[in-house]
Write a structure and sequence with these properties.
It is a single chain. This protein is mainly alpha-helical. It has 7 helices and no strands. The longest helix has 20 residues.
């Protein structure tokens, strides 16, 4: 976006350096999951439905960006969007990212990701 406004020049994209980097995640406490299983499943169904809408209707989806982010429409129509599927990320990608975080000191040590990631709450395709 800065390049489009003439404020900078893109030398390389983040995705070129670390392909498929995961910028965000969704977390629920065990207590919340136990008390609200249907709310969680409904929310995740809606989220995956939105992912599919973005994937299948990219131009139409981009038109909503200015309304919710304040980004100019011309920028929104050209800005990079990541690939949206069903919310499941390959464990290999999660472990590779964890390795980077340990290496740069953002995590003190490695953990078994399978103990924290539970895709069973996501809707089946």
């Amino acid at each position: 976006m800065l390049e489009m406004h003439g404020a900078s020049r893109l030398l390389t994209s983040f995705n070129d350096v670390i392909p498929g980097y995961i910028f965000s995640g969704l977390f629920f406490t065990k207590k919340y999951l136990e008390k609200n299983p249907e709310k969680v499943r409904a929310y995740l169904r809606g989220l995956v439905k939105a992912f599919h809408f973005i994937r299948d209707n990219e131009e139409k989806a981009r038109q909503w960006i200015p309304k919710y982010t304040g980004v100019e429409k011309t920028v929104a129509m050209r800005a990079a969007l990541r690939a949206f599927e069903d919310g499941r990320e390959p464990l290999e990608r999660l472990y590779a990212q964890q390795e980077i975080m340990v290496k740069i000191g953002k995590l003190p040590h490695r953990v078994a990701i399978e103990e924290y990631v539970d895709y069973s709450w996501l809707p089946e395709e």
